[in-house]
Amino acid sequence: MLVQALLLWSCSTTPPRNLNDSCAIFEEKGSWYRSAKASYERWGVPIDVQLAIIHQESRFVDDAKTPRGRLLWVIPWTRLSSAYGYAQATDGTWERYRRDTGNSGADRDDFDDVTDFIGWYGDLSHREAGIPKDDAYRQYLAYHEGQGGYLRGTWRDKAWLKRTARRVADRAGRYRQQLAGCEENLDSGGWLWPF
Prior knowledge:
Blueprint: H1 2-11, H2 22-28, H3 30-43, H4 47-58, E1 68-71, E2 75-79, H5 91-101, H6 111-129, H7 136-152, H8 159-188
Antiparallel strand pairs: 1-2
Organism: Thioalbus denitrificans
InterPro entries: Lysozyme-like_dom_sf (IPR023346), SLT_4 (IPR045795)
Protein name: Transglycosylase SLT domain-containing protein
């Protein structure tokens, strides 16, 4: 029993201590930089945009889930959505990603897979809705509403969603500025990489 508990604990990933500093995130979680950089090189969605979306969706919690609904306002019921993991990707969208990329073993609680997913999704938003890959505001609107919803303008009457997308864009801008000061060191392997 103790061995099983230790194995489960060792597999779980804790969020970074400082969620507001991209350099601190990557200094603490070195393999995450390699994952985000690989996604950027494959799909063209900047690292700062990837991080800002993950921050908004899960605060870097690997097994984040949507809240449960309530039956008769008190009894915990089913979850409000199938969204799960770092990216809060729904079952259907995740399956489409797996099918489209051939990454059939991808997991929503694996940072490497999630950064690739966000890159893929941003590339899809670029191709289907014409959204620039570095436009965190519009990328997030399409991330939340889907490309079809974005094109139909389902976000236009959602003031809360536009405020959230603005926060994502602001955070991406801060992450981008921070990365400008440490990316050379990250690329050269200047820090010892944990995990």
